[in-house]
Specification:
The chain is mainly alpha-helical. The protein has a domain of 148 residues: Intergrase catalytic core (hpI Integrase, Chain A). Helix 2 runs antiparallel to helix 3 and helix 5 packs antiparallel against helix 6. The longest helix is centred in the middle third of the chain and has 22 residues. The chain starts with 14 loop residues before the first helix and ends with a helix. The N terminus is likely disordered.
């Protein structure tokens, strides 16, 4: 229809594909990184710290479907490691919600909080309650744009199907619609209006059409 507000459709990742994307990032940017010199904070920490920060941020984008703008708003006390949940604050555009943390990301998150983040604070000589924050050279970047731009480039380098993090958020919400239903998906996505969640239903329909084409015996 002319003038209709049509939701852009993306290539939707399955949950297994999102896990594989996180695993590929780890293999390329974390596991092969030489950290044998990590004895005390030096300028050589820059790459080590930023890679681990970016990987931990990536898990929240892939598994909790967060907006990129929500990452720098998470405080350390918003993480409940006992109940494995993260509290995401609401704002003018979204509601507050508590989202489960997946078992596959718990080890990464615990390592970041207990080992990487303290080094990060020491290296940058700052005090903050933020879970994620900028490197010293990025401190003037109030919008957290540089770290997110770097992370986007890193993910694009390992997955040619990746466009942006609106795509991964759409993938997570589509999965919630399939497994949790419309109202629960609305809560987990932080949507103030049910129509915002319903806008992702065409993605679910496309997945259904693909399944029918693939498995239809006729």
């Amino acid at each position: 229809m002319r003038g209709a507000n049509v939701k852009k459709l993306y290539k939707i990742y399955t949950p297994d594909e999102l896990i594989q994307l996180a695993d590929n990032f780890y293999s390329v940017y974390i596991s092969g990184f030489d950290d044998s010199y990590m004895l005390h904070p030096t300028k050589k920490h820059r790459s080590f710290l930023s890679r681990h920060r970016n990987y931990t941020m990536l898990t929240f984008l892939l598994f909790q479907g967060l907006h990129t703008s929500e990452l720098p708003q998470i405080n350390i006390n918003d993480i409940d490691l006992i109940k494995a949940r993260v509290k995401v604050k609401g704002d003018k555009k979204s509601n507050e919600r508590n989202i489960p943390i997946q078992a596959t990301q718990m080890g990464t998150l615990i390592n970041y909080i207990n080992n990487v983040r303290p080094l990060f604070l020491e290296y940058c000589s700052i005090e903050t309650d933020k879970l994620f924050f900028s490197m010293c050279s990025e401190q003037h970047d109030k919008t957290f744009c540089k770290p997110l731009k770097k992370l986007t480039a890193q993910v694009k380098s390992i997955d040619r199907n990746f466009i942006n993090f609106a795509q991964t958020r759409a993938s997570v919400i589509t999965h919630w619609l399939q497994t949790e239903g419309l109202r629960k998906a609305q809560y987990l996505a932080g949507h103030k209006h049910i129509s915002s969640t319903e806008a992702y239903l065409p993605n679910d329909l496309n997945e259904l059409i693909n399944d029918i084409q693939q498995f239809n015996p006729f």
